[in-house]
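Two records follow; treat each independently.
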Amino acid sequence: MKKYTFIAFIVLAALTVMGCSKKKSYTNVNATYVESPALPSQDELQNIAKKDKSTGKIDVDLTKMSSTMIYSYIFDMLMDAESYKEKTIKVKGFFQVFVNDNSDDMYYAIIIPDAAACCQQGIEFIWAGEHEYPDDYPQLGQEITVTGKYKIFITKEGIQYSYLQVNQMDFEAI
């Protein structure tokens, strides 16, 4: 019995060592690159925001949670979007802007770092109403608090796209 246990241990150790070996890199000269699916345009999302009115009730207040809990909640919202659909979310984080290279559309996001500040989660948001960037928006990296409904949009390709439709944004004017 000891002999079989010893052999099993040796095999397990060998597999562990092989699993930690340097990864091989592969070059595929026949690689085909496909264009990523089209993101919804800002105009499409802004039109949806104009039609929807908020009740003012906050379903999930992330501003009262630790950064680790906020990070976890945001991750869960991205992975299980249906559970948060149409719920009013309040969250505090840092303002960021991203530009789609294909369409030049600008996408606004609130970025939330974890407790160690090594990892970040973010949610894109659409600020309902007539707001012009950069005049009406905070500066990049500025701390903001947003409140809005969690929305899901299905693209023409059938891909689920989630965002926060913000009806209130708080930040200090600089």
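The next record belongs to a different protein.
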Amino acid sequence: MYIHWFPGHMTKSLRLIEENVKTVDAVIYVLDARAPLSCINESLDKLIDGKPFIYMLNKADLADKNKTELWIKYFNAKGIDAIAVNGTERQSAQALFNLLKKVEKPKVEKFSAKGVTIPTRLMVLGVPNSGKSTVINSLCGKKSAVTGNKPGVTKGKQWIRLQNGMELLDTPGTLFPDFKNQERAVKLALIGSVKDEVVDLEELSKDLVSALITLYPQELKLKYSLNDCNDAEEILKQICKKRGFLLRGSEFDFERCSKAVIDDFRKGKICRATLEIPK
């Protein structure tokens, strides 16, 4: 399976980011806590070069807590401010506000000395379905940005005023023009950043089960009451039997099974899982 998904609107998104990044003071970079490294888009690095930024590891409630802490330490060791949040929780929004005060302090002090008050402007970046819009709504205290559980919901730029007076520019989720690293592409597909319609879900489910066999074998076994097995296809067959995913002639309905297992993972029903750790 080769994964590639870069629709035309993402090219426009890169142009939009390039045109507006000069007007902002800092960047909030939203990463999915289940695959933080895979969510970092190198094509954006040059665009935001020189701007202060914060890595926001969103959906931390679905990720492995210990591994999320490792990622925070990893980024901090590189001199990067990072915070783990659940975009739907108010306390997460407050924690981010506290970190943003550190980002805006130099500008506030500079203009206060001149007797001028000017709002700090921020830009929010992230891959599709990383939860940017949900985070923004939490920061605003009201529903300001369009949200959804599918990639590609935000189509254009939106300037939004936050509760603390800061101004925030939301941008559409953007992927890589070229998925040279297919391992990273698989992880992005698993967390829902790539549209399911362009992926072979049966192959993707096998990749998921193979990863869980290595990373969370006991949790996988417990969730589906499995017999001991280290083969992804055999495990999917067991799940088909237990869930009744069968076709005529008692053939396995791998299509339904694959969708169900991937959905269980995305909703955290198997366990709190993180697909990668810092090296």
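Discussion point: The chain is about 45% helix and 10% strand. How would you locate this feature using only the token line?
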